[in-house]
Amino acid sequence: MAQPRNTKGRAKAPSHERSQRQLRVGEELRHALARVLARGELRDPHLLDVNLTVTEVRVSPDLKSATAFVVPLGGGDQEPVIAALNHANAFLRGQLSREVQLRHTPRLSFQADVSFDEADHINAILHHPRVARDVAFSAGEEGQADAEADPDEP
């Protein structure tokens, strides 16, 4: 099956995959945004003395908008921080335009990165006693099947 082509003859990436350009621009914006936030030029009281980690920047296919995923170091309430960042997005966009050489600086929006919370939840599930028991039981069945297959091995 042929891949869909755009008007310039290049193959388009499927909608669920990001192109190399999107990934490259997103990574450049992530680094630049981290530098801008590290300078501490934002005057919002919710952002004072808050160290932020920019975990990912996803750029739209047309490169006109970008979503930055951030998490405050040390945890804490993320909602006021995200609201303050979204309120300051015009200022941050201006700062990014000075940092990154792009024809048009994307519109910014900010979201809390919940991937760390999801990883903790999965880890807690995997270490639950019932799951550990099931894994041990399943491993015991496999060991028993292996022993039945070759009775000469210990």
Task: Give your account of this protein's structure.
The structure is a single chain. The chain has 154 residues and is of the alpha+beta class. It contains five helices and three strands; from the N terminus they run αββααβαα. It folds into two domains: 20-113, GMP Synthetase, Chain A, domain 3 (2-Layer Sandwich), CATH 3.30.300; 114-154. A three-stranded mixed sheet has the order 1-2-3. Helix 1 packs across helix 3 (89-99). The relative contact order is 0.12.
Relative helix content? 40-55%
Indicate the low-confidence ranges by residue numbers. 145-151
CATH topology of the largest domain: GMP Synthetase, Chain A, domain 3
Mean pLDDT: 80
CATH superfamily of the largest domain: K homology (KH) domain
Percent strand equals 5-15%
Instruction: Provide the CATH top-level class of the largest domain.
Output: Alpha Beta
Alpha carbon gyration radius: 24 Å
Based on the coordinates given, report the CATH architecture of the largest domain. 2-Layer Sandwich
Order of helices and strands: HEEHHEHH
Give the end-to-end Cα distance, rounded to a whole number of Å.
52 Å
Quick tags:
5 helices, 2 domains, three-stranded mixed sheet, 3 strands, alpha+beta, 14% strand, GMP Synthetase, Chain A, domain 3, 154 residues
